[in-house]
Amino acid sequence: MLTQKLRALLSIRWLGQLTDGVFQSALASFVLFSPERAPSAIDAAAAFAVVLLPYSIVGPYVGIFLDRFSRQRIVTFANTFRALDLIVVAILIKAGATGLLLTFFVLLAFGSNRLILAGLSAGLPLLSPRESLVATNALAVTGGTISVVIGGGIGIGIKNLLDHSSNSDFSSFVVVLLASASYLLAAVITQQLGKKDIGPHEHEVTSDIRGLAEMFEGFSILRSHGDSLRGIIATAIQRGGVTALTLMGLLLERNTFHSPDNPDAGLRGFGYALAIAGVGVGIGSILSPWAVAHLGRHKWIRFSLIGPVPILILFAVNQGQIIFILTAFFVGLFGQGLKVTNDALVQSKIQDEYRGRVFAFYDVAVNAGIMSGALMAAAILPISGQSHVLPFVMAAIYLFAALTLLRKTTFAADSTK
């Protein structure tokens, strides 16, 4: 049974991620699906880089704050700051700005988001019994992922409705303003948590701040928990593949499955694919606690990395829209199984006083994987998005990592389960 405080934490996370979906749909519409803007693979990869740059810059320092100051206060501040920042973004979008000024304020929005998600992830074990961590993580991460998909659908729906009576930039302006109000609501809900409810505890706080060195301290802590470190690297590899597939799907929907002269149809098609992927994510989260109970968490993580390989090979051979949607479904399902199980693995192995630093390293590792996937896609994909090579490369990387990085003799060496 969920406690009142755990319900509050989940509400903050889910509302914030639903709003992320609304905001990201507005950005995608403005940058990638506007009639006057035809993106290439490099353009799409650059958009991912804009999203991830603040994570990579802020990430090493996030753990420092989360292990020394009230995580509840940090989450409240970050949500409030993000709400105000989006007002500026909305004004710039209405003016049609696409240059460095808009990029700067978008970077600020995504950078503050890192504080929120890392803070809630680090604090979750303090509100959940240890034996329920896998199920609680499945609920938190899956609810968040589904919320992003729903938010994206809401954003696309509002934009399509407004496009009938106004231009595309004005529609995106309205959607971003709605996102701003929703982030402010998340800040208000955070007041349901006490100052120390999600940590850190007083006895865990030190005044010694050493900057970037503390992220490497998180890595050093992980070295004594080899399965957690290997799981983080596997998650980074999996997320890199998802990024490459997302860019491929974006270009296919924008330029191949629909006429390049009809970007709204491409945006709707991409939205449908994301929705089906969200269904896969939901099934993966429901399946994971059962799979961990019957297979053990190490075997399930390894299987989750291998699981998408057959559908990726099929997609390499047949790149129709139906096969793409099925690929999105299975990649979402098994990706979610890997992520929620590994999150619980890391949370159960790492003490709270180090958890912020460890999750900071986790974030940076995953972001490196995502950027690698984006760069790989940019190097391989033509503007049409059609490529037999990219899905084969993804399948090969997943299989190689599962059979080497996650092989039973090394991956499960630090655990009896």
Automatic annotation (TrEMBL):
Q: Which UniProt keywords apply?
A: Cell membrane, Membrane, Transmembrane, Transmembrane helix
Domain spans labelled Major facilitator superfamily (MFS) profile = 219-417
| Transmembrane annotation, as ranges | 12-33, 45-66, 86-111, 132-158, 170-189, 272-293, 300-316, 322-338, 359-383, 389-406
Instruction: Quote the Gene3D superfamilies the UniProt record gives.
Output: MFS general substrate transporter like domains (1.20.1250.20)
Its record classes its membrane topology as:
Multi-pass membrane protein
InterPro entries xref list:
MFS, MFS_dom, MFS_trans_sf
SUPFAM superfamilies the UniProt entry points to: MFS general substrate transporter (SSF103473)
The Gene Ontology CC terms held by the record are: plasma membrane
Q: Which Pfam families match?
A: MFS_1 (PF07690)
Q: From the UniProt record, which GO molecular function terms apply?
A: transmembrane transporter activity
Localization in the cell: Cell membrane
Protein name in UniProt = Unannotated protein
Organism equals freshwater metagenome
